[in-house]
Amino acid sequence: MTPEFYLGLAVLVIGTLxxxxxxxxxxxxxxxxxxxxxWGLLLIMLAYDETLALLTFIxxxxxxxxVLVRVIERRGEP
Amino acid sequence: xxxxxxxTLAAIVLAGAIATAWVRDPFSKLIALGVMIGGVIPxxxxxGYLDVAIAVSLIAPIATIFVLLIAxxxxxxxx
Lengths: 78, 79
Prior knowledge:
Radius of gyration of chain B: 14 Å
Shape of chain A: flat
Order of helices and strands of chain B: HHH
Oligomer: heterodimer
Number of helices of chain A: 4
Order of helices and strands of chain A: HHHH
Number of helices of chain B: 3
Radius of gyration of chain A: 14 Å
Largest sheet of chain B: none
Shape of chain B: flat
Strand content of chain A: under 5%
Number of strands of chain A: 0
Distance between the termini of chain A: 41 Å
Largest interface: A-B, 40 and 40 residues
Structural class of chain B: mainly alpha
């Protein structure tokens, strides 16, 4: 496979571990850590040449980040 | 793509990912995330997807700005 595939797999594993056990145990650090596996998945999609999947995934990730920010801001507790 | 550039950019991406997972301050996490995104974008450009690179370059800072809204408003680190 291409180097993007292996790099994406490594970033996906690192981000999954970081999102499962965030270091400050807060919603904010968990949400920031959740963006790492998203980029790993984007690299894997890049290795398989899926242009439409890349564009859709980037847009949906931004919208879901906005929704999560609104939810955490409304809840207020760490 | 040149092998040296591939290895260097892969090292930048891995360093950014590990630093994002490792540091504790939310602002430092966002900066390390920016380092990781800066390493990913040349991989997208090298395969010829300039439209995807434009979309990523426009949308990724917007997501960072949304996270900054709560990272700067309340200090989650001390709570």
